[in-house]
Amino acid sequence: MSDETQFEEFLKFQRGIIDEFRANAGKVGGMFEGSTLCLLTTRGARTGRPRTQPLGLMQIDGQDLVVASAAGAPTHPAWYHNIRKNAVVTVEAGARTYRAIASIPPREERDRLFSEIAAQQPGYGEYQAKTDRIIPVVALHPIDLDPDRVKHLGDELVELHGWLRGELTDLRRRIDDVVEGRADDIAPQAEGGNPLAELRSHCLDFCHALNVHHTGEDIGAFPVLRERFPALEPVLEKFAEEHKVVAELQNRIKELVEDFTPDQDDPVRLREEVADLANRLEAHFDDEERQLVTALNAMGPAPVRG
């Protein structure tokens, strides 16, 4: 039998399993009778077309998992390459269908999970013994999370962006008050308070907070996201470059505010620089929230702040 014929026979066998699964609310007979299966639909890494395959579904500590064993073949299965390109998948488990984001656990966590999986299903251990590659474990995180759940990391990012947006709005108001001579309209100052000094202090505080946020993303969140969601690599590189541009703009604004004298300096440049920062940040925050919140929420709850 030729390789092409064998492949056609395999596809026919797989389609039969899929049809039986869907016709019987996830129950399949024959060699898979008694096994817990799911149907995983991914998008082809090259074609972008939907691809569905039956897989064994494992659950450890309430987390749905699938294993890229390919029966111990020397190369990873196609669906694994697909999730590295596009991590959003559809899972059919029994009578339940849900969208999920597929993450790749780091090596230490993978080893722990695979050990537990092999203890429950020794066949996976046999597959690993057949191949030199490290068989991946993939976690499936539902996208439509329970609205009553605890706050997750993505939710915390949105909250932090909201706070930074508010601080930037306040900074722009303070600049308008100082350059237009509306010092008396500013919120009550401490006795002897200087509106320009207050502006400089607020500018430094805002720039410091923004720098801490972006540095935390660059050295904390982004490396973890790269490891767990390889498909995010291009957008993470884009965000890291945007952080550099924002940092340069921040430095220019700090210099302008530090040296600014309303009677001598043209307020137009200061306002334009801050408006440029505001526009860049708004676009950056919107893009981060659109691209990263789901992945961050999939990573777990936000830490409890004391």
TrEMBL record:
<dbReference type="InterPro" id="IPR012312">
    <property type="entry name" value="Hemerythrin-like"/>
</dbReference>
<feature type="coiled-coil region">
    <location>
        <begin position="239"/>
        <end position="298"/>
    </location>
</feature>
<dbReference type="Pfam" id="PF04075">
    <property type="entry name" value="F420H2_quin_red"/>
</dbReference>
<keyword id="KW-0175">Coiled coil</keyword>
<protein>
    <submittedName>
        <fullName>Hemerythrin</fullName>
    </submittedName>
</protein>
<dbReference type="InterPro" id="IPR012349">
    <property type="entry name" value="Split_barrel_FMN-bd"/>
</dbReference>
<dbReference type="InterPro" id="IPR004378">
    <property type="entry name" value="F420H2_quin_Rdtase"/>
</dbReference>
<comment type="similarity">
    <text>Belongs to the F420H(2)-dependent quinone reductase family.</text>
</comment>
<dbReference type="Pfam" id="PF01814">
    <property type="entry name" value="Hemerythrin"/>
</dbReference>
<feature type="domain" description="Hemerythrin-like">
    <location>
        <begin position="155"/>
        <end position="295"/>
    </location>
</feature>
